[in-house]
Amino acid sequence: MSVEFHHKIHDTLADANLQLAIYTATGRLKEKRIEAVASDILPDYQELRSHANAIKKHTIENLDHYLEEFERNVTAHGSKVVYCKDATEVADFVLGLAKQRGARLIVKSKSMTTEEVDLNERLEHHGLESVETDLGEYILQLAHEKPYHIVAPALHKTRYDVAEIFTKRLNVPNEVVIEKQTAIARAVLRQKFLAADMGISGANFLVADSGAVVIIENEGNARLTTSAPKVHIAVAGIEKLIPRAQDVATFLKLLARSATGQLLSVYSSFLSGPRRPGEVDGPEEFYVVLVDNGRSRLLPDRAKRQSLYCIRCGACLNTCPVYRKIGGHSFPWVYSGPIGAIITPQFMGVTHEPGLPFASSLCGACAEVCPVKIDIPRVLLELRSDVKKAEAREGQNRIEKVAFRVFAWVMSHPRVYEMAGRMAASMAPSPDGGWIRNVPPPMNIGPAQAWLSQRDLPPSPSMSFREMWRKRGGR
Amino acid sequence: MSRDHILHRVRTALGRSAGQEPAPPPPVRLRVPEVPRDLRVSSFIARLEALAGHAQRVPSQSAARDLVAAAIAGRTAVASNSPYLAECGITSLPGVRSGIRDVNELRDACEKADVGITSADYALGDTGTLVMIASPAEARLVSLLPPAHIAVVPCDRILTGLDELFTVLPRPADQTSSMVLITGPSRTADIEQILVRGVHGPGQISVFLVE
Amino acid sequence: MGNRVSLFVTCIVDQLFPKVGMAMAEVLERLGYQVDFPEEQTCCGQPAFNSGYRAEARIVARHFLKTFEACETIVAPSGSCTSMVIHHFAELFQKDPETLARVHALEKRVYEFSTFLTAVAGVEDVGARMDAVATFHDGCHALRELGIKAAPRRLLAHVRGLELREMTPAEECCGFGGTFSVKFAELSGAMARTKLEAIERTGADTVVSLDPSCLMQIQGALSRAGSPIRTMHLAEVLASR
């Protein structure tokens, strides 16, 4: 792994307050999810998961068809679909439209896809004011930080952190009461909503048969973002498609429960275009920006394309024993947790952070909670193999490669294996048969040293099993 | 053109050709349970109350009107153009502005009002959800901008749940630009996981279910 | 099903925890099985597979096939090794239909120990006795890849003198994860210490698991912490009299 990755992990592990914050917050979400999907509360939970997986699988396998159907239906409602292959094209489109409409102020609701393409930075660079309106994202925007968690972006911030940020950036007196902090943000953002020229949202789902976007939220900021300004732009990855409005029911039943344990989020919006004739309010213009940004590169791989089924619920983060220790900022990209670990190497290339697929004990808890049944451990294993192949090509990590070649050879030659075992046993100190605290040089290097940094080593038994068995007269 | 470029890449990756028919999708999965109306009503009330919303069954339209009058006493209110509200006599209550058809006027009224009053197209019994469909009768901002939301809904619009909603309304986009499912007051737990209500949307929600 | 059983003890038991293998053999023999130990056995290849070295894992897997193909029934004292054979070997030979067929034929005959006892031998009471307050740690592969949860508990419920207490939270990874334990040592150690806290909260004096690698991680952490709590493999508990 890179030195940076190693340091970030270390720094997070060493921060006791942060450890408590991460563990408690994710623990709460984890427990709430368990309650919400318990077999007496949601008896068809497993069936729904299988169905959601089947819908996503089918849609991804026929993605071009559904993209075109979606586009036809969006257009039929008087809106426009804009395909963007990368971050630059997304920014160019938004900037171009803003210029045409004389837009200066943009309000944004939560969208990991817009984080992915650094949209705010690009807009600000061109003199536009783009304000995050989800409370957690707003706090982070003021603090110039990336989200810590897919669903709870400011998980790592205490009320004192927030007070400091607000005082510094909003010029308000120091306020540590959370309700009052929320009221401060509400007042500021209300003005933005009502003055904004454009609203940019994400989309949890894109519905092909309706030309509609589905947006899930609890605060109401997405509703305001998509209803108050004259222009609404929904930005979504091409993988967000589902075939039919009637499929939304299955996903709504899974998403909020998996994310926070709520039966449904407070607001689920099903938006299919600008204000229709007779409707009193709503935007005058509606655009859906379909983002590729590397998704089409994932598609050919049959074993790994299931990574695109993700509905961004965050359940895998909340249940992952690794995420719950290293937190969101240890990850190299905007997506963290198990889902981040599998999509980052596929978007950025496996050598971007070669340690990432290995930062997992493969416990499988993520796969167990994923509402769309992504087999995350399976994808991690594939990525590990990809990393090693890349390293072999680049001539990196040769020692490890040789070590495993030797391993394979020893393990396919039983006499050698036995001898190696006896040799290792004879070198290992076990004075009183107790577990070993440290080993003398030259053995205190590499894996032995790493192991011993955290726990004791088992003593070598006086006889291996096969020696005992032979002694016993077994066959 | 990025459109053709992206579609081409997607097709190539999937081994599909342009215009190729997809395999049939998994069948739609909607299971509508049989739940007697009384139970749907009581379930709706229990669910919304569990979310710190207020809900109650009301014996008549005039009773609804009286309750709304009491709730908005001394406060300013905007009501949607729902014929049902007019039927109940709510739009003519003192302090209630209604019949707004101009978007700027509506924004202004909703921004200043203490309470937004709407009906609802449907309600979902198993989650305590209001289904608001944008139309000449129901504007989006009435249930969104004012800090309190009152909804007056006839009991026979209460469905069992999502599955029934998408059974009676298989393609909402055919009739509206916006369908919003509202389940309780606006909330966040973004700071230290402490729950705060009324972030951007209304922090108070009251639903009167009329027999 | 005949009464011959072949032991796949696993390399970690062979080299580090031989008593576990002996205990497993003892329990099986007491139940009337004829137990043999194919001497050519070494390892299931999991370390290579988990580290991304599939070609190397294939070599070891082939050797495993050769060693065990002729055996009627194979029993292993490890969830992770059993899962490697019955779930992951097939992934290694997707492009080799002949070997894949041999893998599929073998998969059906490989059992984790507690599964063998309860589902194949059909026993829950093996006549064991041990005075202890124990808690059971579910190894992740056993739990999630093999679906093992009830079997070891039913077996432990019949051990006279044993009080079983469940951990809260339950089902959390001990942090071993193979080479993860040394590649991400600090993180692995932190996960182990969280597991220790859960164990200590039960008040148990013994931690039981059916995975030797989890036991190595947990015992290593207990020992480092100077804790008097001991670990035992399920086979050792079941062999106790």
Q: State the helicity of chain A in percent bands.
A: 40-55%
* Quaternary structure state of the chains depicted: heterotrimer
Rounded to the nearest angstrom, the distance between the terminal CA atoms of chain A is: 46 Å
- CATH architectural arrangement of chain B: 3-Layer(aba) Sandwich
Molecular shape of chain A = elongated
Radius of gyration of chain B: 21 Å
Structural class of chain A: alpha/beta
The CA-CA distance between the termini of chain B, in Å, is 57 Å
Give the topology string of chain B: H per helix, E per strand.
Answer: HHEHEHEHEEEEEHEEEE
Helix count from the secondary structure assignment of chain B: 6
In short:
The complex is a heterotrimer of chains A (475), B (211) and C (241). By secondary structure, chain A is an alpha/beta fold.
Give the SSE map:
The complex is a heterotrimer of chains A (475), B (211) and C (241).
Chain A: H1 3-14, H2 16-36, H3 45-61, H4 63-76, E1 80-84, H5 87-101, E2 105-108, H6 112-116, H7 119-125, E3 129-132, H8 135-143, H9 159-170, H10 178-195, E4 198-201, E5 205-207, E6 212-217, H11 221-227, E7 231-237, E8 241-242, H12 248-259, E9 267-271, E10 285-291, H13 295-298, H14 315-319, H15 323-326, H16 337-348, H17 365-369, H18 376-394, H19 398-411, H20 414-427, H21 446-452, H22 465-472
Parallel strand pairs in A: 1-10, 2-3, 2-4, 4-7, 5-8, 7-10
Antiparallel strand pairs in A: 5-6, 6-9
Chain B: H1 2-14, H2 37-50, E1 54-58, H3 61-72, E2 77-79, H4 83-87, E3 96-97, H5 103-112, E4 115-118, E5 122-124, E6 129-133, E7 148-154, E8 158-159, H6 162-168, E9 178-182, E10 187-188, E11 196-197, E12 204-210
Parallel strand pairs in B: 1-12, 2-3, 2-4, 4-7, 5-8, 7-12
Antiparallel strand pairs in B: 5-6, 6-9, 10-11
Chain C: E1 4-7, H1 11-15, H2 18-30, E2 34-36, H3 46-50, H4 54-68, E3 74-76, H5 79-92, H6 97-107, E4 110-112, H7 113-120, E5 129-136, H8 140-145, H9 150-157, E6 160-165, H10 180-183, H11 185-202, E7 206-209, H12 212-224, E8 230-233, H13 234-239
Parallel strand pairs in C: 1-2, 1-3, 3-4, 5-6, 5-7, 7-8
What does this structure look like?
The complex is a heterotrimer of chains A (475), B (211) and C (241). Chain A has 475 residues and is an alpha/beta fold. Chain A has 4 domains: 112 residues, no CATH class; 251 residues, NagB/RpiA/CoA transferase-like (Rossmann fold, 3-Layer(aba) Sandwich); 31 residues, no CATH class; 47 residues, no CATH class. Chain A is 51% helix and 10% strand. Chain A contains 22 helices and 10 strands. In chain A, the strands form 2 sheets. A 6-stranded parallel sheet of chain A has the order 1-10-7-4-2-3, sandwiched between helices. Chain A has a 4-stranded mixed sheet with strand order 8-5-6-9, with helices on both faces. The radius of gyration of chain A is 26 Å and the shape is elongated. Chain B is α/β, with parallel strands linked by helices and 211 residues long. Chain B has one domain: Rossmann fold (3-Layer(aba) Sandwich), CATH 3.40.50. Chain B contains 6 helices and 12 strands. In chain B, the strands form 3 sheets. Chain B has a 6-stranded parallel sheet, sandwiched between helices. In chain B, a hairpin with a 4-residue loop joins strand 5 and strand 6. Chain C contains 13 helices and 8 strands. In chain C, the strands form 2 sheets. A 4-stranded parallel sheet of chain C has the order 2-1-3-4, sandwiched between helices. A 4-stranded parallel sheet of chain C has the order 6-5-7-8, with helices on both faces. In chain C, strand 7, helix 12 and strand 8 form a beta-alpha-beta unit. In chain C, helix 7 packs across helix 9. The longest helix of chain C is centred in the last third of the chain and has 18 residues. Strand 9 of chain A pairs antiparallel with strand 9 of chain B.
